[in-house]
From TrEMBL:
Cofactor remark from the record: Binds 2 Zn(2+) ions per subunit. Binds 1 zinc ion per subunit.
Name of the protein in its database record: 5-methyltetrahydropteroyltriglutamate--homocysteine methyltransferase
Record keywords, A-Z: Amino-acid biosynthesis, Metal-binding, Methionine biosynthesis, Methyltransferase, Repeat, Transferase, Zinc
Organism listed in the record: Subtercola vilae
Binding residues annotated for 5-methyltetrahydropteroyltri-L-glutamate, in chain numbering: R25, E26, L27, K28, K127, N132, R539, C540, W585, E629
Similarity field: Belongs to the vitamin-B12 independent methionine synthase family.
Class of the enzyme per the UniProt entry, highest EC level: transferase
GO biological process entries: methionine biosynthetic process; methylation
HAMAP family: Meth_synth
Pathway(s): Amino-acid biosynthesis; L-methionine biosynthesis via de novo pathway; L-methionine from L-homocysteine (MetE route): step 1/1
Necessary cofactors: Zn(2+)
Active-site residues from the entry: H718
Amino acid sequence: MTTPPRRPAFPSGTILGYPRIGPNRELKKAVEAFWGGRSSVEELEQVARGLRRQTRERLVGLGLGRTDSSIPESFSYYDHVLDAAVAFGAVPARFTGLVNAQGRVDLGGYFTIARGEGDSLPLEMTKWFDSNYHYLVPEIGPETVFSLASDALVQQFSEGLQQGFLTRPVIVGPVTFLALSKPSDEAPEGFVPLSRLDDLLPVYAELLRRLAEAGAEWVQLDEPALVSESLDVSSADTSAAAARAYEYLGAPDARPAIFVAAPYNSLGDALTVLAATPIEAIGLDLVRGTVPAAGAAGLDPLASKTLVGGVIDGHNVWRGDLAEAWQKLEALRALSPSVSVSTSTSLLHLPHTVEPEQLLGDQLKSWLAFADQKVEQVATLAEGLEKGVAGIRSVLEASTAALAARLAAPGVSDGAVRAREAALTAADFAREDYAVRAKAQEQALNLPFLPTTTIGSFPQTGDIRRARAQLVAGVLSDDEYQAVMRAEIARVVELQEEIGLDVIVHGEPERNDMVQYFAENLDGFAVTQNGWVQSYGTRCTRPSLLWGDVSRPKPITVDWSVFTQTLTEKPVKGMLTGPVTILAWSFVRDDQPLGETARQVALALRDEITDLQSAGITVVQVDEPALRELLPLKKADQAAYLDWSVGSFRLATSGVEASTQIHTHLCYSEFGVVIDAIDQLDADVTSIEAARSRMEVVTDIKSSGFARGIGPGVYDIHSPRVPSVGEVTELIETALASIPDRQVWVNPDCGLKTRGYDETVASLTNMLEATRAVRAKV
Ligand code: GLN
Ligand code: ZN
């Protein structure tokens, strides 16, 4: 028997990934300039190279090692799952025109797959585990020919090496890649992408060999699929696939050492499976998950591997308790003598740095850690692992003291808010029967068959953004700003009247973001100036910080809605963001159960909705696009989540009369698992994303027996493409084939804020023409 090659040691501290957008969203700007024809591909590549170099240097400056494989090579132009699809030749048939004679797709083609072109729809987009990051869903069928079709990762590693950094390439692991894929259009009924594992593995092996040749000592394969119980494939299947995959990839000598990272929760039984394979290191999420019990069956082989304890929260901004993190690392040492420290997830979910934030105040800042501060925390704990805890004791104590100060600070607990929450009864969570409401609303609103509406926002033009910036800068007075916004609302109302929409929206011009806007107007929140986080592609959001008890000092949206209603005879839909989404898209306090925080937000919204009703608004939409996103990955945690999330929505919306029509909106596909919860929201009308999946969701709706109003989106708003009348007609008819006529509403997939006016007018006009055609037929 030959002895396995000696592998270099895993670094004592690392992170699973770093933000890719750049500290000032440089990548977003460069990519959009390229899309807009304002720069060349060379210019874009130069910006990307610059950012990668800056990241490597920054990470060394923050305490990671220059040449010990601790720096992850985790760059992506758009999405890391798309990167893997393109790297392995998994390009759907409708895009084969983009593949050149060498089997490769260039950068322009890569973006085309992400964004669609002409009649070729882009890859579907969906949430990455329980985060607000969205990945593109690869399409795999029996016909997919896997091959190593990109050397981007090898090049990026070599680029680092030339600059004097020995980094660690990061790629989505084979099990996760296939588990997240969907069957291609060509695949037969019942085809499962994971069944192609054996064909894909040799391509991964080749990539590993190439990386080893280039000098990589460690490679990171991300396998979050192994922690999730809410994928299309079962945990038993992903575990079995992991056993095959890592037995195979671990076999050759000519490869880098393999680090399999499992962020977002605990591995459960999959840990035993990984322990039995020849991989060298395993990353555990010890923020969401717990330290496995030493001595548990099947874990003995861990003693010969490096265990990388993800004890620094990569998914939330709190400075946290470093002393507790240290204890988890100590506990991990019972399983293996070789323990390293890491973040629980990639830092992709966090803004770059706390330091330049001027609005936060020193106290709040002392409670926070963004990506750079998390790297410093990792470096501190790594020092403890290397040299003993004595040297870092004072840092651990300072973090414990900061946490204690935070919990005792004014505003973190507000007696009035707590008392109101404690007095709630079951009646506060329920409305009258739907039958009663439906009749009252029919009389009040008198809407036609197939009522049409939009999801709320209209294009956020340069003028609108400029006016907001000028208000913040003090160039525009409050009154002047109000006048600009009112003019915009008047324009949007007139446009909707012209096009013929039935339920009118004000277009949300005054909102910078659907969550931040409310955060700015509620107590208990703070907002950042530059805390941008990638949501998908070049789209970034700036999550608010929910740090204290939440209350509403005064009405927020009432004046805007009332003004809008003066402009039209048609019903105006008030527009609010729901409690679950406000939580999901903020960084939320971690010192009390989420459900409690959600009820506080719900009570503030409940007051807003009753104020809207008193002011004469008869339709109110409460958006909950993030309902699915926060669904826990582990089945055992799901019922409790659905209970508090649904409960908070009902608490927000149950204070109104029967004649007030409550709408909700949810986006992104995969509704199957939450369809019962959607039903329990008890909204009068629910609009959902459906166009990208060509109305697949209506079958779920049909089988669930959902009996209230439903608006499956009839066109995709994520791309500038204008849907034809025929296409929209077909989708409406598909919906009508499954759902009783009277329930169906016609609307786009989501809000229009990221679109331009030309395509918006053209698309909505086609939507109305299609609706009229269907109305005439029925
Ligand atoms: N009302 C919001 C809008 O139209 C909803 C956005 C969303 O679902 N993400 O912009
Ligand atoms: Zn939406």
